[in-house]
Design brief:
mainly alpha, 277 residues
Length: 277
């Protein structure tokens, strides 16, 4: 499974350079899917499976992992675009571009505690929808970056908004993905949601870079202008994926189970309400 996932991530990330229809991309993707299929076949036959597939009967876990893929597709490429925008459009040095992203990290740290309290009060579903919607607004703000932009207008304020949404989305998504599972399966549930995020990040990076590159190549203007418009397209694509994630949250996660989990947390119970299909 490790080899299959690593091969799939590499195929997706390198697809823009090798070509989506190239023998490398198709071959690596096919080989990865074969390896993953073999892993599933082994898990179905063995008496002591590494990852019991019955865990996916848990509705909250199943839905949260699907949402996590889309969430990572939307948000992981943001850091890539911000770095390139700061360096190649605003003219920052690499270390300056790194420091320019500190507001996002600090915002996530500050609001993560607030997000945990929100999950306890209104449930992981509502918290996740709020997080995805707010982060989508932040990405839409980032989509306004311009060749003559500034740190305050084009990086700082959108970063704070996006960081708020990211904190809510990732905290609620992780809690949803691990709710209703037994203590012995908590590690597996946590590993699954992290894997979903890594796969989503690789897929989102490949897709949104392709979108940004296509826009950049289509713009007949000076390089900073063309690059800025390409990054705008990438951020806009990320905002669309974030809204898709919010919609999937509404459709795939149970409001009743979310409320039961919040009530159990408020009462200080050790485990959340069981969530099955």
């Amino acid at each position: 499974v490790t080899a299959g996932l690593a091969m799939l991530v590499y195929a997706l990330v390198d697809a823009n350079d090798a070509g989506w229809g190239s023998a490398q991309t198709i071959g690596l993707t096919a080989a990865a899917l074969v390896l993953l299929a073999v892993f599933v076949a082994i898990e179905l036959r063995t008496e002591r499976p590494l990852a019991p597939l019955a865990i996916f009967r848990n509705r909250a876990l199943r839905g949260a992992n699907i949402v996590s893929v889309v969430m990572a597709m939307a948000f992981f490429p943001m850091f890539f675009f911000l770095t390139f925008y700061a360096q190649y459009v605003l003219g920052y040095e690499p270390i300056e571009a790194g420091f320019a992203q500190l507001p996002i990290a600090l915002s996530i740290i500050v609001f993560a505690g607030v997000a945990s309290q929100a999950v306890t009060r209104v449930g992981y579903k509502t918290t996740l929808v709020i997080g995805m919607a707010v982060a989508a607004c932040g990405l839409l703000w980032f989509a306004q970056v311009s060749p003559g932009g500034s740190f305050m207008a084009d990086i700082l304020w959108p970063s704070l908004v996006t960081g708020f949404g990211l904190a809510f989305a990732f905290v609620a998504g992780t809690i949803a993905a691990t709710s209703g599972v037994s203590g012995e399966q908590a590690g597996l549930a946590s590993g699954l949601v992290n894997t979903s995020q890594q796969i989503g990040g690789a897929l989102g990076l490949a897709l949104l870079i392709a979108l940004a590159t296509a826009r950049t190549d289509a713009v007949e203007a000076a390089q900073p202008v063309a690059l800025a418009e390409g990054y705008q397209a990438g951020f806009l694509g990320g905002a669309g994926l974030a809204l898709l994630g919010a919609l999937l949250t509404v459709l795939l996660l149970s409001s009743r189970e979310s409320r039961e989990h919040a009530e159990a947390a408020r009462k200080g119970e050790g485990g959340a309400a069981h969530a099955t299909a």
